């Protein structure tokens, strides 16, 4: 429910307002910054202050309107008027000033300066106060301002960059042109089926797949005694599915390769995640749960491609297993098999984390009722457990698909002679220097993700999966069938041994003189790392720490707004905030290049754009965590604070924040560690003066400096584990102190 302050004015009120409006201070700040700081800047350096830049604000008519809007807002805020009327007038003056400033930047394409940033931000605060005083947003000035600022952030840093990708794909040299999109979609790098150099008849085999699958699906429909129209429909759908299978198996190019990898990775990650979640919640052997908690941390503390790097040590041409044990020199891991295995190892724990929550939230009473009615363990799982975890399965499948499509590091290391959509985006921009082609690949990636999202919604349909009634559930979750538990335990054992071997191989490789040739112990690689990589590592840690705090706080604020308040555009804010996480990282990276490489929003080749990209990439995780935490807090606590005349900011700081410490710390840890291990999005944004550790690590792997890369990988793993343990320990102490104070 919405929580409103008692000071919120009514649109029909006749009382006189306060002598001063709260908008007077931001209006005064807008005037002062306009007159004392430059409105533009000559180039990329953000904090450049030159005397010539002050003339911008004095020579442009639109900028005079900005000043007039700020002065008018200041004067109106001091007038003794009806509160609602004064709010309406302030909306007009603030909108005129803010709109004139934004319009001038768009028309002049002048990079914004520190004066423009502070002036326009102050005018946005004026609008926030005005919306509250006018009663158009039910809340105090903090709530109204937060809604306005968050909406502007979503538009500027999420919606606008994605729009630039779509525009670059179809707008060439200022005119609408589909030729680049057509060339990209018809180029062999994107897709081809008939390979003239191959002795295999790819087209004929694809047609055979279509016929075989069509016959099988039609025969099954006949066996089930379906009607003739249904049989015909099954034949058509089966034929289409068979053709798709044939294209994926025999087609070449970025599209079929990426889709075939997704077809392997997403279902496997989802099923393994479900298997591990069932073990973690329902296994009879308790140590299994502790081992699963360790596994769930592994993908968070390392870059996704670190396992591909480790597979070279273990299974490459000079690998410990392939060459050392079996005396084999094979390249089998370079291609779809290696990429798929690396992605499954990297993304299954994420699917496990999603499905663990779905399994643990099931109401045991439903399964107990089924067993009371005589259902066996397998029937209970098929008819009760499986249908209820469908939302979790859909979410895990969708996230695994997004991660697989967006993955850049694993294909660039293990891709071999195959093309992938994520790598083609990068090569189009940095290798072929064709931004329009990169945008076309980005549009394809975005279309695939959105298509998967709508298929997920279609699969879930309009069914209800609610089992939480507001009453505490009783009983324990039923254990899984013993045969299934033994089988899943064996799978977990093999998984654990393989992953442990991969991580151990990285540590071994960091101390080997020359991997695969000379295993003499040496610390030379760590010495090289300290000289060439340590400064980059510290810079990355600083950037990650700077981006983690606003990502956590902004995510908490968005979660509070969409959970506790009803306002126009709430769905837009919620969907737009989560869109950056659902969009493949490579697409967002290209989008930031297009959006912030020229014109008024010039930010490229700076630490600022990297921080912004990380903030809005990791913010959605903090949003979902905070939404889940707020769902467990009774709104009556906030209502009590409001009735005691506490403002919304005070309620957030004194009531909600202490209760959500652990949840917010989880979002903070994820934001920091994700920023430390990010690669697919930031690889487009790094510059010679703003290098990041993961990009440098990937470069060392590509250059064959495996020992130095192994040293950095080891340091990264150890440091992330240490950071997580320390921050979690501090969070537990803070939470315990809060509990003692409340007690």
Sum this structure up briefly.
This protein is mostly helical and 743 residues long. Helices cover 71% and strands 1% of the residues. Strand 1 and strand 2 form a beta hairpin.
Main traits of this protein?
4 domains, 4 strands, disordered N terminus, MetI-like fold, two-stranded antiparallel sheet, mainly alpha, two-stranded antiparallel ribbon, about 750 residues
Proportion of residues in extended strands:
under 5%
What class do helices, strands and sheet pairing give? mainly alpha
User: What is the spatial order of strands in the main beta sheet?
Assistant: 1-2
Structural Rg: 29 Å
Number of strands: 4
Ends distance: 27 Å
Helix content: over 70%
Number of domains: 4
CATH topology of the largest domain: MetI-like fold
Q: Helix count?
A: 31
Low-confidence stretches: 1-18, 462-474
Query: Could you tell me the mean pLDDT?
Result: 80
The biggest sheet amounts to:
2 strands, antiparallel
Would you give an account of this structure?
The chain has 743 residues and is mostly helical. It folds into four domains: 16-136, no CATH class; 193-251; 254-495, MetI-like fold; 523-743, MetI-like (MetI-like fold, Orthogonal Bundle), CATH 1.10.3720.10. Helix content is 71%, strand content 1%. It contains 31 helices and four strands. It has helices at 24-36, 56-59, 61-77, 83-108, 114-134, 141-170, 179-186, 202-223, 228-250, 254-282, 287-301, 306-315, 320-325, 336-360, 364-372, 377-388, 390-406, 409-414, 421-430, 435-460, 482-511, 524-532, 534-564, 570-582, 585-595, 607-630, 636-643, 648-659, 661-677, 693-702, 706-742; strands spanning 171-172, 175-176, 512-514, 518-521. The strands form two sheets. A two-stranded antiparallel ribbon has the order 1-2. Strands 3-4 form a two-stranded antiparallel ribbon. Helix 9 (228-250) packs across helix 10 (254-282) and helix 10 (254-282) crosses helix 17. Residues 1-18 and 462-474 have low confidence and may be disordered.
């Amino acid at each position: 429910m919405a929580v409103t302050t008692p000071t919120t004015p009514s649109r029909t009120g006749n009382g006189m307002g306060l002598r001063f409006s709260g908008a007077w201070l931001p209006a005064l700040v807008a005037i002062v910054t306009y007159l004392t700081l430059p409105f533009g800047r000559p180039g990329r350096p953000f904090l450049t202050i030159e005397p010539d830049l002050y003339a911008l604000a004095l020579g442009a008519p639109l900028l005079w309107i900005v000043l007039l809007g700020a002065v008018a807002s200041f004067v109106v805020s001091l007038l003794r008027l009806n509160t609602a009327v004064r709010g309406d007038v302030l909306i007009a003056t603030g909108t005129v000033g803010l709109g004139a400033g934004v319009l001038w930047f768009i028309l002049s394409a002048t990079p914004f300066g520190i004066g423009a940033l502070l002036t326009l931000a102050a005018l946005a605060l004026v609008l926030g106060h005005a919306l509250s005083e006018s009663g158009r947003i039910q809340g105090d000035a903090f709530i109204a301002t937060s809604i306005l600022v968050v909406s502007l952030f979503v538009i500027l840093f999420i919606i606008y960059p994605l729009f630039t990708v779509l525009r670059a794909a179809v707008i060439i040299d200022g005119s609408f042109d589909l030729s680049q999109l057509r060339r990209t979609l018809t180029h062999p790098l994107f897709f081809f089926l008939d390979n003239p150099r191959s002795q295999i008849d790819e087209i004929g085999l694809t047609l055979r797949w279509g016929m075989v699958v069509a016959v099988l699906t039609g025969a099954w429909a006949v066996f089930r005694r379906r009607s003739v129209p249904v049989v015909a429909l099954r034949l058509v759908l089966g034929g289409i599915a068979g053709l798709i299978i044939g294209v994926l198996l025999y087609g070449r190019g970025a599209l079929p390769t990426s889709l075939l990898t997704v077809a392997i990775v997403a279902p496997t990650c989802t099923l393994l995640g479900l298997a591990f979640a069932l073990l973690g919640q329902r296994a009879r052997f308790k140590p299994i749960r502790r081992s699963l908690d360790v596994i769930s941390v592994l993908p968070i503390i390392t870059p996704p491609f670190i396992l591909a790097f480790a597979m070279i040590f273990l299974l490459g041409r000079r690998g410990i297993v392939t060459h050392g044990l079996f005396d084999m020199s094979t390249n089998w891991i370079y291609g779809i098999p290696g990429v798929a295995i690396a992605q499954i190892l990297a993304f299954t724990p994420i699917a496990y984390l999603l499905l663990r929550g779905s399994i643990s939230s099931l109401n045991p009473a439903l399964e107990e009722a089924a067993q009371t009615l005589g259902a066996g363990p397998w029937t209970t799982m098929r008819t009760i457990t499986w249908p209820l975890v469908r939302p979790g399965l859909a979410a895990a499948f969708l996230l695994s698909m997004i991660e697989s499509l967006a993955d850049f590091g694993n294909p660039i290391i293990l891709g071999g002679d195959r093309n992938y959509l994520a790598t083609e985006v990068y090569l189009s921009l940095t290798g072929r220097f064709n931004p329009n082609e990169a945008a076309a690949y980005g549009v394809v990636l975005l279309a695939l993700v959105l298509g998967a999202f709508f298929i997920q919604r279609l699969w879930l349909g309009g069914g209800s999966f609610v089992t939480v009634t507001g009453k505490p559930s009783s009983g324990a979750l039923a254990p899984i069938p013993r045969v299934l538990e033994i089988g899943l335990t064996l799978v977990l054992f093999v998984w654990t041994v393989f992953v442990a071997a991969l991580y151990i191989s990285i540590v071994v490789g960091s101390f080997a003189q020359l991997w695969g040739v000379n295993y003499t112990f040496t610390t030379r690689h760590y010495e090289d790392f300290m000289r060439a990589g340590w400064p980059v590592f510290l810079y990355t840690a600083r950037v990650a720490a700077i981006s983690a705090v606003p990502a956590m706080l902004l995510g908490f604020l968005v979660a509070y707004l969409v959970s506790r308040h009803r306002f126009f555009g709430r769905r837009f804010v919620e969907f737009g905030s989560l869109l950056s996480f659902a969009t493949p990282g490579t697409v967002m990276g290209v989008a930031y290049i297009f959006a912030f490489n020229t014109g008024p929003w010039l930010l490229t080749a700076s630490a600022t754009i990297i921080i912004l990209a990380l903030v809005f990439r990791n913010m959605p995780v903090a949003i979902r965590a905070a939404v889940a935490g707020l769902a467990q807090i009774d709104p009556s606590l906030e209502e009590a604070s409001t009735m005691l005349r506490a403002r919304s900011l005070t309620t957030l700081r004194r009531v909600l924040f202490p209760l959500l410490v652990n949840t917010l710390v989880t979002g903070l840890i994820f934001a920091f560690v994700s920023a430390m291990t990010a690669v697919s999005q930031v690889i487009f944004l790094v510059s010679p003066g703003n290098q990041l550790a993961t990009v440098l690590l990937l470069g060392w792997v590509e250059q064959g400096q495996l020992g130095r890369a192994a040293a950095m990988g080891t340091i990264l793993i150890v440091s992330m584990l240490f950071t997580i343990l320390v921050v979690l320990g501090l969070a537990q102490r803070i939470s315990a102190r809060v509990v003692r104070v409340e007690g």
